[in-house]
Design goal:
Its EC number is 3.6.1.31. It catalyses: 1-(5-phospho-beta-D-ribosyl)-ATP + H2O = 1-(5-phospho-beta-D-ribosyl)-5'-AMP + diphosphate + H(+). Pathway: Amino-acid biosynthesis; L-histidine biosynthesis; L-histidine from 5-phospho-alpha-D-ribose 1-diphosphate: step 2/9. This protein has one domain: MazG-like (Helix Hairpins), CATH 1.10.287. Helix content is about 75%, strand content about 0%. It has 6 helices and no strands. Helix 3 runs antiparallel to helix 4. The N and C termini lie far apart (about 40 Å). The structure holds phosphoribosyl ATP. Phosphoribosyl ATP binds next to helix 1, helix 2 and helix 4.
Length: about 110
């Protein structure tokens, strides 16, 4: 299994890029363009993931999901949120069936 620490290392780079020159860094250029541009990239990568899945193209599914995770991480970083916020939410949900969770939501 590959160590999840790569996500933390990339997240640390994304934080550093807040101080970088948008001409020399793709991530800085996205921060400079702002929330709408970052959201647009997230939507584009989600759409490209769907197209790869429809084509049953395993290599492109992995590439597009990586692009989707990456741009989602840029979005988190843009709002001062971290990978750990998402991992903590996964941990909170761990073992809770989506079916049970939905039932609890609709009866509340
Ligand atoms: N993981 C990534 C990563 N994944 C994808 N991309 C870039 O995301 C961009 C958008 O992907 P697309 O497929 O939409 O490409 P495109 O059509 O050319 O893009 P647009 O012109 O539509 O914006 C491409 O330029 C990819 O190179 C990434 N850019 C950076 N990283 C990480 O972020 C770090 C910082 O990057 P810089 O800020 O550029 O130094 C890097 O060291 C990496 O660890």
């Amino acid at each position: 299994m590959i160590d999840i620490e790569v996500l933390h290392r990339v997240a640390a780079t994304l934080a550093e890029r807040k101080k970088a020159d948008p001409d020399s860094s793709y991530v800085s250029s996205l921060y400079a363009k702002g929330t709408d541009a970052i959201c647009k990239k997230v939507a584009e990568e989600a759409a490209e993931t769907i197209m790869a899945a429809k084509d049953k193209d395993m290599l492109h599914i992995v590439w597009e999901v990586t692009d989707l995770w990456f741009h989602s991480m840029v979005l988190l970083s843009h709002f001062g949120l971290s990978v750990d916020d998402v991992l903590a939410e996964f941990r909170r949900r761990e073992g809770v069936s989506g079916i049970d969770e939905k039932k609890a939501r609709t009866t509340a």
